[in-house]
Amino acid sequence: MLKKCLFPVAGYGTRFLPATKAMPKEMLPLVNKPLVQYGVEEAIEAGLSEIGFVTGRGKRAIEDHFDTNFELEHQISGTGKEKYLDSVRRVIDKASFSYTRQGEMRGLGDAILQGQRLVGDEAFAVVLADDLCLNDGLGVLGQMVELYKQFRCSIVAVEEVPREQIHKFGVIAGNEIKPGLWQVTDMVEKPPAEEAPSNMAIIGRYILTPDIFDLIRETPPGKNGEVQITDALLAQAQRGCVLAYNFKGRRFDCGSVDGFIEATNYVYENVYLPEQAELENK
Ligand code: UTP
Predict the structure, then answer these.
(1) How sure is the predictor about 70, in pLDDT bands with cuts at 50, 70 and 90?
(2) Where would I find the Nucleotidyl transferase domain in this sequence (predicted)?
């Protein structure tokens, strides 16, 4: 069964400079919790407890976050402040963390290929932490794991986006096999609106079967010399089966400043305040 989840975090986060000059964008806090922790919590909820990060230079803070900080823990041990560490302690207890480096920024496809060292020869999930996905019920990865158990093939999460934004995404075309689930027949990375095969955009949640690694190796670099995961997925769709799933829940594009602020306001009201009320009663 699925156990492993890759987090490609080698990007520079240039849209958040200067904040991301010395700090990974994945460590930017959404209220009191770094962005990447939301993604890791979603993976753990989906039963994926072996977390692998594909990192780059300047990402040490992510390793330190998912590790014990003895000095701090000693300092606040037995005080009323200890409860503020509960959420990250739970994550550290429930999951294992491993790391590998993407030597050069050669695109998301290449970052996933570097992750082969961590996932080996089994199916795995991929989370792009800057897409924050929230749902009242089961999280998006949990929904996708349920589908994987049924179909045993690669699955990408998609959502409808307005035509004028479609050029920012990978876009699919497919045959709807049941409401909200398509068998992919075509996939294009960042098409101009008039060439987009649909308005269904791929967002940062994937389940991939391990044959994707050879397909990535065979994929020539596309725009900007980057190896696109979309191209390898199209090859996989043409040889076998790739599904696109219109998930239940809400996505925030935390890789952009506007999306990050929208997510911050939403999380403050709907996640942080209720959690604090619960903590006060402890
Ligand atoms: P983006 O291009 O959206 O993120 O990559 P970025 O480069 O971090 O941010 P900007 O555009 O400069 O502001 C999407 C995801 O893929 C990872 C990034 O870390 C991000 O999570 N990625 C991308 C890699 O790990 N390696 C790459 O070579 C490219």
Answers:
(1) confident
(2) 10-267
Residue 10 CA to ligand 1 centre (angstroms): 6
Counting the structural domains of the chain, the total is 1
Q: Is residue 127 within 8 Å of residue 7, measured between CB atoms?
A: yes
260 CA distance to ligand 1 middle (Å): 15
CB 157 near ligand 1, within 6 Å: no
**Phi, psi for 252 (deg, rounded to 5):** -120, 135
pLDDT higher than 80, residue 281: no
218 vs 261: CA distance, rounded Å: 39
Distance separating alpha carbons of residues 175 and 148, to the nearest angstrom:
18
Q: Check whether the bond before 191 is cis (ω within 30° of 0).
A: no
Find out whether 112 and 10 touch, Cβ atoms under 8 Å. Answer: no
Question: Residue 99: in which H helix or E strand, if any?
Answer: strand 96-101
Calpha distance 104→56 (Å, rounded): 8
| C-alpha span between 192 and 168 (Å, rounded) | 9
Please give the residue range of the domain that contains residue 98: 4-280
**Model-level pTM?**
0.95
Instruction: Please spell the DSSP secondary structure of 153-204, one letter per residue.
Output: SEEEEEEE--GGGGGGSEEEEEEEEETTEEEEEEEEES--GGG-S-SEEEEE
pLDDT digits (tens, 9 = 90+) for 112-162: 999 999 999 999 999 999 999 999 999 999 999 999 999 999 999 999 999
Q: Quick one: which atom of ligand 1 is closest to the CA of 107? A: 28
DSSP 8-state class, residue 68: -
Q: 82: which residues sit within 8 A by CB, 6+ positions away?
A: 76
CATH code of residue 201 = 3.90.550.10
